[in-house]
Amino acid sequence: MARRKNPPRDYDYQMLHEERSYGFFWYDWIWRVLRPVLILTCSVLLVGGLVGAAWGWAQDNFVAPIDANDTTPQLFEISRGSSLTRVANELEAANLVRNGTVFKYVADFMGMGQKIQPGEYTLTRAMSLHEMIAMLSEGDGKPLTARITVIPGWTIEDIATRFAADGVIKDKDDFLQRCKSGALYTDFLFVADVLGTPTVNQRRFVLEGYLSPNTYEIFTNATIDEIIRKLLAQTDAAFPISYQDRAEELGMSMDQVLTLASLIEKEAKKTDFARVSAVFHNRLKDNMALGADVTIKYALGSNRMALTEGEISVSSAFNTYQHRGLPPGPICSPSGDAILAALYPDEQFIAQKYLYFCSTEPDSGGLAFARTLREHEANVAQYRPLWIAYDESRGL
What we know:
mainly alpha
């Protein structure tokens, strides 16, 4: 006969009854502690996985180099004044970045958005956004600006030759053609006025005399049009309203003043500007031919001091021995001092009716003035042998 098991003791029944009454067993407290930890850990792993997957996708589609193995150099140019948006779009169009908008936001986030500089860069499709942004913000190593100088007395052709030699302009013929026609610059009123003069077709260059002598700072990638406009703007500034009012008092236009100033510039040193101006004003008032050698030299492109009879007889609207009054236009870019002298000639020389002058010793740059033709001819006879010797010494 099987033995009966001992019935549970009273306290066992009591414990089981209490555990069932409260709804948990003794190990439930461990689960209650571990459960939120496990849930948090799983959530972190899940979110991390999703973020990692999203970042990998974004990296592959927006941030990563176009081709990490393609190191082929590619020229990329940023024009002056380009916005960050334009640069970003052009990089995307050139297939150098995957997404222009992302490039823009990354550059802004790095604080480099305003530091990207114009220039020419050699980029590759293997470059990261950070590498590209760093290079574009450092610049291409070339100066952004350069200084150019126009010397008083230079002609349009002198200016073009110097600018071309210095690399300021790439197309000398384009520069000369723009200066010859002047048609692109009629928004400057004085250019429009010149184009309306009856003798405009007799000029070699419409803009002769209007490219103001000065030293300018320009961008190294400035266009020919931008350079010409900068010089014309300086001429506008160099002929203020007070000069216009004075020109009206003299019965002269701005173009006539600049024309007279260009003759003064070529004929004398600064110390004699006002006296030369007085001689020309006196001759104009008396309706005499100006007889200025410098206008003949301009017409012929000559550098001789002693002009021959044949040169003086040349058929040209700029021959001021044959034609009375001012020539059709300026023969060079006059300085501010020459312009001032044209407006304010020496009053004493005006009053004393000085009508003549000629060069003295070639190296001195001095002038001999005379009131009568006899005095002038005596001066020429004295100094002409020196002019001839000077020309011979230069092989002219």
